[in-house]
Amino acid sequence: MIKYIGKVLMDFINKIIDIPGHVMTIDEVERDWIVNKISPLFTYMQATIEYDIEPTHERLVSEGNTTNKDRMKADIIGVRLSDSRQVVFLEMSGAPTDFLKAHPIGDTCKTLQERIDSLNSTLLNYLSYDVRFAGRIRSLTIQGIRDRLTLRTIFLRGKEDYVDEEEFSAVFPLSWDFRFQFIEIFELMEFVIIYILEYPDIIRELIKHPATSPELSIRNCISCCKS
Q1: What is the pLDDT of residues 172-227, one digit of tens each?
Q2: Cα 90 from Cα 77, distance rounded (Å)
Q3: What confidence tier does 53 reach under pLDDT thresholds 50, 70, 90?
Q4: Which of 27, 13, 53 lies closest to 178, judged by CA?
């Protein structure tokens, strides 16, 4: 995977960094600019995993997807085409200059609920199986604050017990001189790609383990919160 990434790295950088030699200051980095630059990552993923994912803006998701569609407001959502599940979320936020401001707090709560909703939409198909074997079924989110991207996953561990984990964090390079930092970005995306590719095997392993008691069933453990 990394060898392949190396072959396409320079072409990818040429497309998303505006002018070689130009250094952007952090104040120039706006939410819409980074969203537009991150979008090609999903295009790269789509080509790599044989068209099984596509980037979809939230307004299109609200029209064409039924997974808690009224609550979905992420900036970009990766939809797995094989089952129309929303599996990857990209949420961009401005830098929090005041921890009491509602915008960063609201974005965090919104993104967390989106991820739980997405995970639940998958788990609802496997309610009679043992929750102890459901830990590899995850919802993935790329959270962007200014030039830093952080990949987080969430999974169901027990009764109404959702575990949030940070998997990768990488700085989005804003200068041609720092272009090789994109290796970290591709490693982050590689994690996403591998998860999507392994998903069928994860499900096959889960369905080998029906719950031996009602308390251990996913049905008993899942939390379907109301908006």
Answers
A1: 766 666 667 777 877 887 888 788 778 889 999 999 999 999 999 999 999 864 44
A2: 6
A3: low
A4: 13
DSSP string, the chain: -HHHHHHHHHHHHHHHS-STT-B--GGG--HHHHHHHHHHHHHHHHHHTTT-EEEE-HHHHHHH--SSTTT---SEEEEETTTTEEEEEEEEE---S-TT-HHHHHHHHHHHHHHHHHHHHHHGGGTTBBGGG-TT--EEEEEEETTEEEEEEEEEEETTEEEEEEEEEEE---BGGGGGGHHHHHHHHHHHHHHHHHHHHHHHHHTT-B-SSGGGBHHHH------
Question: What is the spatial distance between Cα 91 and Cα 98, in angstroms, rounded to a whole number?
Answer: 19
Note the pLDDT tens digit of each residue in 151-162.
889 999 999 899
167 half-sphere exposure, CB direction, 13 A CA radius: 22
Report the amino acid identity of residue 54: E
Length, in residues, of the chain: 227
Which two three-digit tokens encode residue 195?
């998860």
Report the C-alpha gap between 71 and 58 in whole angstroms.
10
Give the pLDDT mean for 110-126: 82
Regarding pTM above 0.70, the answer is no
